[in-house]
Amino acid sequence: MTTVQTATRGRDLIDHELFDRLAADVARDHGHRLDTAGRIVDQAVVYLVACSRTYEPIGPSPLVDHGWHAFILRTADYRSFCETVLGRFVDHYPNDTRPPATERARTAARTLDAVYATGLAVDADMWAQEVPCSSCTDTKDGGDGDGCHKGCHGSKSK
Questions:
Q1: Whole-model pTM?
Q2: Is residue 155 packed enough to be buried (19+ CB in 10 Å), middle (13-18) or exposed (0-12)?
Q3: Which of these, 4, 37, 39, 110, has the minimum number of CB atoms within 10 Å of its CB?
C-alpha cells in the first residue's frame, strides 16, 4: 500500500503501457479523444483507491465508470492491480434500477469525499453526474470554448 502514499495521480499506480491500453480502449469504445480518455482512466484508478478504503456505498460518475469498465475487461491486469495496489479485490455491483435523485445525490457526495480523501489528484470535471456528448470539444479538450462544435447542444454553430 506504500505505492498509493507516494503516488500523486491515479495513473502513477499502474504500468504506463497498461494505462495507455486502457485509455485507448476508452477512446475507441466511447468516442472520447485520447487525452480525455486518459483523464477518465486516471480518475477510475483514483476511484478504485477510494473504493478500497471505504465500505460506504459509493459510485463512479458515468465518465469514470467508462474507465472502470475498461479496466475490468482486462481481468488479469485488474485482478493484479487490486491485489498488489489496493490490497483487496474491488467488485463491481451495477445498479439494476435508477435510485431516487436524493439517494444519487447522497452517493455522489460520499463518493467525492472518498475520492478526495485518497490524497491523489482529483480531476473535478470527470465527476460530473451527467455524461457530456462524446463529440463535444471545449477549451479543456482543445476547442475554442464556444461549446459543442457538432451542433448537438450549446453550440454557436447551430
A1: 0.78
A2: middle
A3: 110
